[in-house]
């Protein structure tokens, strides 16, 4: 069995991921209802988040070098970072109270000093792929080692499109907002190989004008037992 992978995003009517303010409360309510074992996140999303919502990166303290002891029902944060971009930032993720802990996906080309950085701080990490992270292999290893059966990613276009092109996505969940971004549209699916067949399994309208639609990918053979 493969892990179930769900892409969940908030988009405009013309499919843009940016250029508008999504209903974040509703977005995360839907995401939480999936009860994922892990959230799959790209390193760039972590960097942008720290820039947008943070007041600078706090210094590490001794507790940041130890794995947190939190409720095992909380989801892992599985972060793709073959380039070691999050050196000196990961502790801000580990401190997040709704994160069980961080699992870092790296490759054989990841700088040795970054791997040592992870070891010194007791981060779980998986080496998958030569240059970039082999997500297909990495997802299998995360399931085998950590019992992760359901993965949700809601971090944007790049990672989602890679997963779709690999053919390892089971479900796409879109919270469509009642507006058109237009010429500044940042289309969610512009980097996919195209002609991905979907089957509608759910639709729901909310009082704020948003519509939630859910599709599965019936031709996704890689996720069948």
Task: Please characterize this protein's 3D structure.
This protein is α/β, with parallel strands linked by helices and 225 residues long. The chain has two domains: 1-37 and 151-225, Dihydrofolate Reductase, subunit A; 40-148, Dihydrofolate Reductase, subunit A (3-Layer(aba) Sandwich). 25% of the residues lie in helices and 22% in strands. It has helices spanning 24-33, 43-53, 90-94, 112-120, 135-146, 157-166, and strands at 4-11, 38-42, 76-80, 102-106, 124-127, 150-153, 171-176, 199-205, 211-216. It has a nine-stranded mixed β-sheet, with helices on both faces. Helix 2 links the parallel strand 2 and strand 3. The longest helix has 12 residues, at 135-146. It is globular.
Over all CA atoms, what is the radius of gyration?
18 Å
CATH architecture annotation name of the largest domain: 3-Layer(aba) Sandwich
Report the strand count.
9
Strand order of the largest sheet: 5-4-3-2-6-1-7-9-8
Mean pLDDT: 92
Q: Structural class per helix/strand content?
A: alpha/beta
Shape: globular
Assign a percent range to the helix content.
25-40%
Overall CATH class of the largest domain: Alpha Beta
Total domain modules? 2
Summarize the structure.
The chain contains six helices and nine strands; from the N terminus they run βαβαβαβαβαβαβββ. With 225 residues, the protein is of the alpha/beta class.
Attribute tags:
single chain, 225 residues, alpha/beta, Dihydrofolate Reductase, subunit A, 2 domains, 9-stranded mixed β-sheet, 9 strands, 25% helix, disordered C terminus
């Amino acid at each position: 069995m493969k892990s179930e992978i769900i892409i969940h995003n908030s988009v405009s009517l013309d499919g843009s991921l940016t250029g508008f303010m999504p209903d974040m409360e509703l977005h995360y309510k839907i995401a939480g209802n999936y009860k994922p074992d892990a959230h799959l996140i790209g390193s760039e999303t972590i960097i942008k988040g720290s820039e947008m919502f943070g007041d600078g990166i706090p210094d590490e303290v001794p507790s940041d070098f130890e794995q947190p002891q939190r409720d095992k029902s909380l989801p892992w944060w599985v972060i793709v970072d073959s380039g070691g971009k999050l050196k000196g930032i990961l502790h801000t993720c580990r401190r997040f109270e709704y994160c069980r802990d961080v699992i870092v996906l790296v490759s054989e080309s990841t700088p040795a000093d970054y791997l040592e950085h992870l070891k010194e701080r007791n981060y779980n990490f998986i080496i998958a792929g030569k240059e970039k992270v082999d997500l297909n292999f990495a997802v299998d290893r995360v399931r085998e080692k950590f019992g992760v059966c359901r993965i949700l990613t809601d971090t944007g276009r790049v990672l989602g499109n890679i997963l779709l092109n690999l053919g390892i996505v089971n479900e796409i969940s879109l919270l469509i907002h009642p507006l058109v971004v237009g010429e500044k549209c940042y289309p969610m699916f512009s980097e996919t190989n195209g002609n991905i067949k979907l089957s509608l399994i759910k639709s729901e309208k909310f009082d704020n004008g948003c519509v939630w639609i859910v599709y599965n990918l019936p031709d996704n053979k890689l996720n069948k037992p």
